[in-house]
């Protein structure tokens, strides 16, 4: 486990462990406390109290005490208010958690935040994505590195983190929500994965994790190609709408066309499009029969004079700024972890 931390940052850098006190994050914190000083790095911890369970403040302070006993410094406890804006309690908790973690990282000048996701978490994420049927983005799971967020344990099984805590005499906290079968992820862990292992043989979790890695590599390559082509064929008109050349778009394979449309919507207007949306936009280029404008969440797309015009469908959302299609880094919305234990899941 300690080997997995090598190379996460440079000598002199500060890294933070997103710690809940659960077995995964506690084992990661112990490994960081041992390995980082030997690599010339400083290691601290950030504990997020979502205030969603009775006794959450006491558990947060307990995790902070464990971090200090391990020698981590600084140790920050942050309490957040989770407001469900319609995305659901898990997504709202995740947004609050990542927002707090990022603020603390910036305030402390930390280079990276280490998250305790394991190979088993990755396998469960792939199965959740498969159940949603939402395409390759859901199936490629969680990135080992996503900007400052680093997941060094994605190649390590959950049993190993539990054993590491036992071997070091670390008293890990067990979140009762991790046993609550109202959450799909818990049902996958307790029912679906054992059934798959029983019926298909051992190694299912490893196979799912390998699948995630392969699909992520493919997706990153296609995304890079789509971004390159998007910058070649986009422009902006006097009304502030982003324009996309139809001739340039139709020459691309379907996979790139979908991504180009998605890039324009996401990075030009902050709008996430589903596959059905991007297919409708692509049809304006590839299956043109005089269709009128398409109204999608947050944007309107229409075709005229060999161009597709992307504009905000709310007047106050229009901008005169040049479209910036540089890649951005954010927590992947498909990285859904039902557990709200504050470790940065």
Report the β-strand fraction as a percent range. Answer: 5-15%
CATH T-level topology of the largest domain:
Rossmann fold
Helix content: 40-55%
Number of domain modules: 2
SS-based structural class?
alpha/beta
Summed over residues and divided by their number, the pLDDT gives a mean of 86
Number of helices: 11
Total number of beta strands: 11
Radius of gyration: 22 Å
Shape assignment: elongated
Order of helices and strands: EHEHEHEHHEEHHHEEHHHEEE
Residue ranges: pLDDT <50 for 5 or more in a row? 315-345
- What is the spatial order of strands in the main beta sheet? 3-2-1-4-6-5
The CATH homology group name of the largest domain:
HUPs
CA distance, first residue to last residue? 18 Å
Q: What is the name of the CATH architecture of the largest domain?
A: 3-Layer(aba) Sandwich
Q: What summary fits the major beta sheet?
A: 6 strands, mixed
């Amino acid at each position: 486990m300690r080997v997995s931390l090598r190379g996460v940052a440079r000598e002199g850098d500060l890294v933070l462990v997103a710690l809940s006190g659960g077995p995964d994050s506690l084992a990661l914190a112990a490994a960081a406390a041992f390995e980082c000083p030997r690599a010339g790095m400083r290691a601290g911890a950030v504990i997020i109290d979502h205030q969603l369970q009775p006794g959450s403040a006491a558990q947060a302070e307990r995790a902070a005490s464990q971090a200090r006993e391990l020698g981590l410094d600084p140790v920050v406890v942050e309490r957040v208010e989770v407001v469900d804006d319609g995305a659901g309690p898990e997504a709202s908790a995740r947004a609050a958690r990542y927002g707090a973690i990022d603020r603390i990282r910036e305030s402390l000048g930390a280079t990276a935040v280490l998250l305790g996701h394991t190979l088993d978490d990755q396998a469960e994420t792939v199965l959740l994505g498969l159940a949603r049927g939402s395409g390759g983005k859901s199936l490629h799971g969680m990135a080992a590195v996503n900007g400052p967020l680093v997941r060094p344990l994605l190649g390590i099984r959950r049993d190993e983190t539990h054993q590491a805590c036992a071997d070091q005499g670390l008293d890990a906290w067990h979140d009762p929500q991790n046993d609550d079968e109202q959450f799909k992820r818990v049902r996958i862990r307790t029912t679906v994965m054992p059934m798959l292992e029983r019926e298909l043989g051992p190694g299912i979790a490893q196979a799912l994790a390998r699948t995630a890695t392969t699909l992520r590599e493919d997706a990153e390559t296609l995304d890079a190609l789509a971004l390159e082509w998007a910058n070649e064929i986009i422009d902006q008109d006097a009304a502030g709408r982003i324009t996309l050349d139809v001739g340039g778009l139709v020459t691309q394979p379907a996979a790139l066309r979908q991504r180009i449309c998605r890039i324009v919507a996401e990075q030009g207007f902050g709008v996430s499009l589903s596959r059905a949306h991007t297919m409708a936009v692509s049809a304006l280029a590839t299956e043109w029969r005089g269709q009128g404008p398409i109204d999608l969440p947050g944007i309107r797309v229409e075709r005229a004079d060999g161009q597709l015009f992307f504009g905000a469908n709310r007047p106050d959302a229009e901008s005169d700024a040049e479209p910036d299609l540089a890649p951005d880094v954010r927590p992947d919305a498909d990285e859904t972890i039902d557990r709200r234990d504050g470790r940065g899941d």
